[in-house]
C-alpha cells in the first residue's frame, strides 16, 4: 500500500505518467518511465559485427547490456536498436565505450535506456541524411550522461518521439547541417545538458517541453520553436546562454518563439559580452509567446533545483560520458573560455584532435 501511495503522490506532484519504478535511480522527466531490458548480455568485442559485438547485443529485445571492453566501435553501417533494451556504458573499463562513423537508430522502438555512451557520427558517414542518434517515432526513451558529437543531419533527431528525456549529456559540434537536436510530438525533458557550437536547434522543439538547467555555448540560435503552427507549452527554467565567437546575435537565445507558444521562463541568464568572464544578466523575454505565470507542468519546479549560475558549474563539471575523453575535454575547454574560443564546424578534423578529430578512447 505504501508503494502505491508513493507512486500516486509522485504522479500528482510531477504530472508524469504513473509508473512502478524509474528507469534508474535518479532518472527524471518524461523518459524516466522507460523500462529497458533485463536479460544480461555482455559486449566482449569492439568489432563492427559478429558474436559478442554491440551490433549483436542490440539485435534482440529485452537485453540489459554491459561491456567487458573499452574503446571505439568503428561502425561500417548504421545500427538499429531493438525495443526494451538498456545500454550500460558505465560498465565499460576505463576509458569507456563509444561508437563512431555511423548513426545509432531507435526509430520506431520503445522503452530504451542509454547511459554513459558516446555517439560520434562525423564525416566518416557518407549519408548526409543521418544523425548521430535517431529516435524518430520512438517512445519511452532516456539518454543520460551521453556524449553526442559530430552529428551530420542533427546530433539528436526525434521527430514523432513520445516521452523522451535527455539529461546530463553533451550535445556538441554538429557538422553538416550544424544542428543540435530536433524533437517533435513529445512530451520531452531536456535537463542539465551542455550544448556547444551549433548553428541552431538547441533544441528545436515542437512539443510540450521541460528545459531545465541547461548550458548553451557559442550558438547562432539556441532554444528554437521555428514559428511552428503547433500549440505547445514550454517550461524554460534556470538555463545559462553564453555567446561565443560564432554568435552573431546573442538575442537569439530564444529563436522563432511565436504567439502559438505558451512559455514559463524563469531564472534564465544570458552572457552576451564574450569577455572571458561569466557575468550574464537575466534573460526571460521569449519573443511573442504567451507568458505563463506558473509552469505548465507541475514537476518542473521540483526539477529546477539549481540557479543558472549553479547549473553552469554543475553541467560543465559533470555532463557527458565518464570518464571524459579527448573530445569532451576539448568541448568543455571551449566553454570554459567564456566567449573567447569556439567554432561551428563542418568537419570533426578541424578540432585538431587525434584520430581524424574523433580523439582516442
Automatic annotation (TrEMBL):
Signal peptide location: 1-21
Alphabetized InterPro entries for the sequence: Pectin_lyas_fold (IPR012334), Pectin_lyase_fold/virulence (IPR011050), Polysaccharide_Lyase_1 (IPR052063)
Single GO MF annotation: metal ion binding
Sorted UniProt keywords: Glycoprotein, Lyase, Metal-binding, Signal
Keyword Metal-binding: yes
Protein name: Polysaccharide lyase family 1 protein
UniProt organism field: Mycena venus
Organism classification: Eukaryota, Fungi, Dikarya, Basidiomycota, Agaricomycotina
Amino acid at each position: 500500500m505504501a508503494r502505491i501511495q508513493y507512486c500516486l503522490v509522485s504522479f500528482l506532484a510531477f504530472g508524469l505518467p504513473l509508473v512502478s519504478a524509474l528507469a534508474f535511480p535518479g532518472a527524471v522527466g518524461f523518459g524516466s518511465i522507460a523500462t529497458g531490458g533485463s536479460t544480461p548480455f555482455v559486449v566482449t568485442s569492439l568489432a563492427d559485427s559478429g558474436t559478442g559485438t554491440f551490433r549483436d547485443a542490440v539485435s534482440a529485445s529485452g537485453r540489459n547490456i554491459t561491456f567487458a571492453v573499452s574503446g571505439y566501435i568503428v561502425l561500417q553501417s548504421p545500427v538499429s536498436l531493438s525495443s526494451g533494451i538498456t545500454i550500460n556504458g558505465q560498465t565499460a573499463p576505463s576509458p569507456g565505450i563509444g561508437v563512431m562513423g555511423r548513426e545509432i537508430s531507435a526509430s520506431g522502438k520503445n522503452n530504451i535506456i542509454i547511459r554513459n555512451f558516446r555517439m560520434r557520427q562525423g564525416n566518416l558517414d557518407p549519408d548526409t541524411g543521418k544523425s548521430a542518434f535517431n529516435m524518430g517515432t520512438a517512445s519511452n526513451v532516456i539518454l543520460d550522461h551521453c556524449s553526442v558529437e559530430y552529428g551530420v543531419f542533427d546530433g539528436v533527431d526525434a521527430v514523432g518521439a513520445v516521452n523522451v528525456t535527455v539529461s546530463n549529456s553533451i550535445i556538441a559540434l554538429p557538422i553538416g547541417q550544424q544542428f543540435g537536436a530536433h524533437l517533435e510530438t513529445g512530451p520531452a525533458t531536456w535537463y542539465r545538458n551542455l550544448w556547444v557550437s551549433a548553428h541552431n536547434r538547441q533544441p528545436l522543439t515542437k512539443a510540450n517541453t521541460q528545459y531545465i538547467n541547461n548550458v548553451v555555448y557559442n550558438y547562432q540560435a539556441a532554444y528554437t520553436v521555428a514559428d511552428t503552427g503547433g500549440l505547445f507549452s514550454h517550461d524554460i527554467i534556470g538555463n545559462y546562454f553564453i555567446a561565443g565567437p560564432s554568435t552573431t546575435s546573442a538575442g537569439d537565445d530564444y529563436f522563432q518563439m511565436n504567439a502559438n507558444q505558451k512559455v514559463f521562463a524563469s531564472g534564465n541568464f544570458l552572457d552576451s559580452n564574450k569577455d572571458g568572464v561569466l557575468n550574464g544578466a537575466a534573460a526571460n523575454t521569449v519573443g511573442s509567446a504567451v507568458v505563463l505565470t506558473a509552469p505548465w507542468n507541475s514537476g518542473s519546479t521540483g526539477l529546477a533545483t539549481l540557479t543558472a549560475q549553479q547549473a553552469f558549474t554543475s553541467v560543465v563539471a559533470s555532463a557527458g560520458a565518464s570518464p571524459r575523453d579527448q573530445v569532451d575535454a576539448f568541448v568543455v575547454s571551449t566553454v570554459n573560455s567564456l566567449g573567447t574560443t569556439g567554432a561551428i564546424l563542418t568537419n570533426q578534423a578541424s578540432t585538431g584532435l587525434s584520430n581524424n578529430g574523433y580523439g582516442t578512447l
